[in-house]
Amino acid sequence: MKKVYSKIESIAGNVITVYADGIKYGELAEVSTKFGKSLAEVIKLDGGLVSLQVFAGGRGISTGDEIRFLGHPMKVSFSDNLMGRIFDGSGVPRDNGPALNENLITIGGPSFNPAKRIIPRNMIRTGIPMIDIFNSLVESQKLPIFSVSGEPYNQLLARIAMQAEVDIIILGGIGLKYDDYLFFKDTLEEGGALSRTIMFMHTASDPVVESLMVPDISLAVAEKFALKGKKVLVLLTDMTNFADAMKEIAITQEQVPSNRGYPGDLYSQLASRYEKAVDIEGAGSITILGVTTMPGDDVTHPVPDNTGYITEGQYLLKNGKIEPFGSLSRLKQQVNDKTRDDHRALMDGMIKLYASYKDSMEKKSMGFHMSSWDEKLLKYGEKFEAGMMDLSVNIPLEKALDLGWEILSDCFAPEETGLKSSLLEKFWPVKETV
Amino acid sequence: MKSTGKVVGVNGNMVTVNVTGLVSMNEVAYILTDGKRLKSEVIRIQGDKVQVQVFEMTKGVGIDDDVEFTDDMLTVELGPGLIGQVYDGLQNPLPELAEEAGFFLERGVYLNALNREREWEFTPIANTGAKVTAGDSLGSVPENNFTHNIMVPFNLLDTYTVKSIKEKGAYKLKDTVVELADDKGNVFNVTLVFNWPVKRAIKCYEERLKPVDPLVTKIRLIDTFLPVAKGGTFCIPGPFGAGKTVLQQAMSKNAEVDIVIVAACGERAGEVVETLKEFPELLDPKTGRSLMERTIIICNTSSMPVASREASVYTAVTLAEYYRQMGLDVMLLADSTSRWAQAMREMSGRLEEIPGEEAFPAYLESSISGFYERAGIVKLKNGEKGSVTICGTVSPAGGNFEEPVTQATLKVVGAFLGLSRERSDARKYPAIHPLDSWTKYPGLIDAEQTAYAYDLLRRSYEIGSMMKVVGEEGTSTDDFIVYMKGEFLDAVYYQQNSFDPVDAAVTPERQAFLFKQIMEVLTAELDLDTKEEVRNWINKLRQSFLDYNSSQWESDDFKSYDKEINNLIADKKVGILANAAKLMEK
Predict the structure, then answer these.
(1) CB neighbours of B384 closer than 8 A, spacing ≥ 6?
(2) Is A6 part of the contact surface with chain B (CB cutoff 8 Å)?
(3) Hey, which of A12, A205, A411, B454 has its CA 20 to 30 A from A127?
(4) Which of B45-59, B90-104, B138-152, B419-433 has the lowest mean pLDDT?
(5) Residue from B261, B342, B266 nearest B86 by CA
(6) Is A297 in CB contact (< 8 Å) with chain B?
(7) What pairing do the DSSP bridges indicate for beta strands A36-46 and A66-73?
(8) Which segments within A210-338 are labelled E, that is strand?
């Protein structure tokens, strides 16, 4: 039974209250204003008084506007027709395509039973050497990209969306600049990846409440595809905007803030989204890659800090490169012994030498004398940064490993690399060493 | 008659109920929604309005939904069959839940914690006519390789006479095995199982003792320098990525205790899975049986409802106390107590309580100390000793130890093993900071000797930071030797390779042996003139010690490295430093 009410008791921020009967917590309603219709969600019940959060915001709502309760919680349509489509935060098409109403699924469902989880075992190849070799992305992993405003994190995500070896990409945009939204749309279209992509895009000009829905909608759809055996990669950008939206709403609702204005349940809220990442025995998987911009490049800021406690490592994007020292994939050990014999050793060896290069750079900048070893390291560092760290490099893992040996042999004698002799014999390129 | 009520308000997972009848604080109530029964706990009573926190998602709960009160506090089942189980925070067995509900944790599904059908071989101990009180053994059943005592339920507070007791034989969990009668002639049936409220400490013992016996973790830095005691408490705070969970996992595998209870509280589900899949395969060196046969896992990971996260640490500690009552040494590993504190904060916010520091509730400190105080070593009524040791990790915001949860924890624990980002970034594991950490418990090795080594390390750090300013050129050779000795101690003794099958767990015997060798080096007067010589000698020594550490105890390899090391030391050692002469005579 659908009920209509037309006497709004109060309007504060995005929250309106109305007296109504038989309403369930979390139920949706439709508010008709003179600017059009908007969805609203029940966020509090107090006797007969129902508080609703209006997705389009409270601006312009009149106390006489009509509220129609829909009798069900937030739902999204799920079918193969979603592929290649673009929606906004409340599931309304953004791409002039038809609205989808069949096979509705509830969002924000229960969490996965830990006893049914399995140890992650499959690598996701991205064609980006800094990820594939040094911090492999693993199916069912949840990883944020820690970055600062101005860094090309969206470019990185778009490249991963085009190159990653998965079945379906779900891109959730939260508080995106309109330009960035268009960038994603155009890039994926040109790259031919749009057909395997579903986008839920909330831009900075959309009402803030809608942004809260984006991760839940994206993950609910991902979950259904994963259960049908698909390998799904969910990209979320930017989760700091999501946290800021929660902060804004919590403060307007007069909740007691905990740390720098963020609500006390920030950790649980973020965790309940990231923990949707899972590898399902006998079916597909969900892998989550999110962007977390660090205000003031401060990793101890509540958003990156709480995220770090939840996720399985992080990629640190700095100066346009994935920084090898600040980045860590906690699950890489599960997969990088199954790729090629030299993968682990080369990963460790190259990073150790790169660390020595950094030391030499420091010495150089302080005006110390450069030994012949230092010179070698400097040469190596440059080649490493150009060949491996540059974000535009797109080569398969095996090629990247070969390239690693190439760079090493260009700069060092075999025994200088500190790698095991058995590997050197097998992989060291045959040519004149410098 | 049990009370009933109707829902009159919903705010997140806090529901307000209008109640008819009597209601008690922390009583369990069920909300009837959509044909499901959602478990909840009373947390505030105001007249006939009662506020309950729901252990499930509250989506779909509406005004006028029926509520049933149970007249019971939140309890756990105590009986044989707990060991080896994987429970959620409310003692729901997760594998059985998966069979019932599939991949997801559907709300409102509650299963028996213990198998009702399994038969246990009961052996009576008490005689008919004996006088017994709560906690006394009436009989026993074998559980894995433990003798599981069937005790007088802890909630029977009088003195009772054994009216009848069943003969030796196989009984099911709910079969009455003993009948007890009080003075007034009331008869109580005792089965193999009874319930106990999680938030009440079990106190059926003679007296609490001072924790002094070291609890061997087989981690050198802890056992030798920062020992913890059986029945003691300790905390591991550290920023993310510093290795808290890895350290606890190492302890759960290697610690010399009878039973390990892992409470994964608000952390990643993936980490629990590692324990779940690994433990059945690994063997306990002491008993030769699977590690799972000494482990209970309470698993309320970060995406599971927060209210049951709050309950989960209490569930875990109650199970620990229960096995302590059988004279066993139990270790509880809680990861992480910060998530538990945050769960309290969320609830406090919904109750609109006046917030304390960083919005944590004012009772944060008393809750934390109340939890840790449930640890202890006790003398039971039959003279046996049992202990509960609690280790909690803390995840301080931003890695800053000045925050309320870390500070409140430091007030009540007996040892503090602080992890440092600096050490974990340098891949120095375990990343416990040797100088910032402290302990109040006595250890395995002579305290004066460890103090000497500690002091040397402190000076080595000072010289190290000085050298950053003045360079190696500006440091005297004597100071440089102290610096290198400190680095040596760090590299071969403090750091331990948890991936190496031998180095991962070091017996106390081997620790004592190794430490003696180390002391030979630390107290040595050396015949080395230049820094280059010092560096070369120490580097060689370090390499030999590392090989030594990863060779089997008393194997041929071990003996040959031992010889090599003795030669290396003899080569350059010309005497004992004056300040250590007395110490080394011991």
Answers:
(1) B327
(2) no
(3) A411
(4) B419-433
(5) B261
(6) no
(7) unpaired
(8) 231-237, 257-259, 262-263, 278-279, 285-293, 313-318, 321-322, 328-329
Task: Confirm if A236 and A291 have CB atoms less than 8 A apart.
Answer: yes
Band (A81; pLDDT cuts 50, 70, 90): very high
Please identify among residues 422-461 of chain B the ones whose CB lies closer than 8 Å to any CB of chain A: 425
Backbone φ and ψ for B230, nearest 5 degrees, come out as: -65, 125
Q: Would you say how long chain B is, in residues?
A: 586
Residues B48, B84: contact at Cβ < 8 Å?
A: no
In 3-state terms, what secondary structure has residue A420? Answer: coil
Query: Which pLDDT score is estimated for A2?
Result: 62
- The three-point CA angle A50-A53-A59 to 5° equals 115
For tokens 């860590």, what's the residue? A328
CA distances for A1 relative to A4, A22, A25, A69, angstroms: 10, 10, 16, 9
CB B393, CB B372: distance < 8 Å: no
Amino acid making up residue B293: E
> CA separation (Å) from B90 to B75, B116, B309, B367?
8, 18, 9, 19
Which residues, including other chains, have CB under 8 Å from residue A413's CB and lie 6 or more apart?
A433
In the DSSP assignment, the letter for residue B490 is: I
Cα atoms in the 13 Å half-sphere on the side-chain side of B198: 22
Domains in chain B (CATH in brackets) are: 4-73 (2.40.30.20), 78-101+205-433 (3.40.50.300), 119-197 (2.40.50.100), 447-585 (1.10.1140.10)
CB contact under 8 A, A24 and B349: no
Residue A111 touches chain B, beta carbons under 8 Å: yes
CA-wise closest residue to B77 among B107, B42, B112: B112
- Identify the three-state secondary structure at position A295: helix
* B6 interaction partners in chain A (CB closer than 8 Å): none
- DSSP-derived letter for residue B215 is -
Per residue in B364-407, pLDDT tens? Answer: 999 999 999 999 999 999 999 999 999 999 999 888 899 999 99
In this prediction, residue A433 has a pLDDT band, given cuts at 50, 70 and 90, of very low
φ, ψ at B536 (rounded to 5°):
-60, -45
**Cβ–Cβ under 8 Å, residues A221 and A198:** yes
Q: What is the distance of C-alpha A40 from the center of its chain?
A: 26
Mean pLDDT, residues B100-108: 91
Q: Which of B153, B121, B156 is nearest to B137 (CA)?
A: B153
Asked if B343 contacts B306 with a C-beta cutoff of 8 angstroms, the reply is yes
Strand pairing report for A168-176 and A231-237: parallel
One fold for both A3-73 and A77-335? no
- CATH number for the A3-73 domain, one of 2.40.30.10, 2.40.10.170, 3.40.50.10610, 3.40.50.2300? 2.40.10.170
Domain A77-335, CATH number (from 3.40.50.12240, 3.30.9.10, 3.40.50.300, 3.40.50.1820): 3.40.50.12240
pTM of the model: 0.92
User: How far does the CA of residue B336 sit from the closest CA of chain A (Å)?
Assistant: 11
* Residue in the structure block whose two tokens are 């406090």: B348
Residue-range domain boundaries for chain A: 3-73, 77-335, 343-427
List of chain B residues whose C-beta atoms are within 8 Å of the C-beta of residue A309: 240, 395
- The predicted complex's ipTM stands at 0.87
For B445, list phi and psi in degrees, rounded to 5: -115, 145
A274 contacts on B by Cβ (under 8 Å): 303
Distances (CA, A) of B261 to B79, B97, B331: 16, 20, 6
pLDDT recorded at residue A432: 55
Measured between alpha carbons, how far is B453 from B475 in angstroms, rounded to an integer? 21
| B268 contacts A26? CB cut-off 8 A | no
Which residues fall within 8 angstroms of residue A421, CB to CB, at 6 or more apart?
none
